[in-house]
Each structure stands twice: as C-alpha cells, then as structure tokens.
Amino acid sequence: MTEGEAPRPGTGELNVRTLNLTLVDAGGGRSDLEFPVARILDAGFTGRNQAGAMKHVEELRAHGVAAPDRIPAYYAVTREMITTDDEIEVLGDTTSGEVEAVFLFKGDQVYLGVGSDHTDRELEKDSIPKSKVICPKVVCGQVWKLADVKPHWDRMKLRSWVELDGERTLYQEGSLADFLPVDDFLRGVKAVVRDGSLDGMVLYMGTMPTLGKELLFSSTFEGRLSDDVLGRELSFRYRIRPMEWLT
Fold this sequence. Notes:
Oligomer: single chain
Helix content: 10-25%
CATH class: Alpha Beta
CATH superfamily: Fumarylacetoacetase-like, C-terminal domain
Radius of gyration: 17 Å
Largest sheet: 11 strands, mixed
Structural class: alpha+beta
C-alpha cells in the first residue's frame, strides 16, 4: 500500500494525501480504492457508558492529566500523519499504540477500517491535542463498507498485541458494543465539525482500556478488527522505531 500527494485543482488548498487501499466486499471480492484524505479526527472517551467515562476523566484530572472538559472529546490531526506503513519513527521511548475502529468518508459512502492512534504519553500529560499530532496515525490497508457490517456492529471485536521479552502479548480486547452506538457517534462528530462535512475525513473512534490497566511501551504494535458474522478480519502490524541516530 502506498500513499501520495494529489492537489485539489483550482481550490488553492493544501495538497491532499491519498491512501491507496483495498476494498473487501461482504463476499470476499477485492477492488482498489483511492481515498483522498482531507481531514483526520481522533475521538476519545467514546465508551457507551458515558457516566463511567466521565468519572474516569475526573480521576485523570485529579492526577494532573490534561483531561478534556467534555466527552466525547475530539482532536484534529494534521493529514500528513496518516500512514499504512509497517514501520513508524517516533521521538523518544514513551510512545504507544491503541487499537481503534476507523471510519473513512468518501462522497456518500462510508468505509470501515482498523488502525492505531499512536500517542506520545509524556506529552499527553501536558496536552492531549499536542500528543495526538506528534506521532503517525496508522490505518490498515484494507477496508469494508460500513453498510455491510452495521447490522451486526455490536458483535465485532477489537484486539491489540504488544511484544514483551520477545513474546506476543494480548494488550487490549473488547467489542464494539463497548462504544457509543455508531449512528449516535457519527451524529455527534458531524455536530462538532464547523462546516458539517465529513467528506474526505479519516475518523478514529477511540479505544478501550488495556487489559493490565497500564500502558506498555513495545517495539511493535498489532491490532485486529474481527467480524465473526461474515467470517473475516482486518489487521495491521507495525514496528516502532525511536529516532536515536543523533548523538
């Protein structure tokens, strides 16, 4: 999978980053999909139990973490940060991934993928918005049509793995039933976008807690979205390479 730059003719806007993806239909058929990225948005604190999520926000704030004033929270990300690569470069050794369902909007079609909102955890203590724009955002190279999975949305599973002492270790696990209902979530997103347009947006839905209730810093991160109803999955895996080449 590759990415490129394609200008929007006659608009005077910045170049649009294009993802070259593969669309997998409900029957397993595959076709090429070019997706011009106009915007990237990270959502957070999107658990279906919003009262519980708000309690967690208050706990974070009490511990000095720069928690949001309202939930769900939304963070804009510069569009050049998106990638389907299997390796990313980061600054420092306190960054980590988190598996998320990812929506991609193109015209009247909505696609679903899986990705990682890789985040700088030290910077996150001071500014969540800044921590979101300093690390690449990974998305898998294959997507599904949202319409194909929406009827059984709550039955799909998210998982992630890290590598500890050379062993692949389950890090996160949950179902999409743990998150806001998809229609409610998308209505909320549209309400906070100033012009109301989601066309060209890559939208990360938010993540769930780690199984050990702590962040782990690994040299690799792997995520998967499983659809047991249609018997298929989307996945990604990437290496995390700190920039240590400068003395």
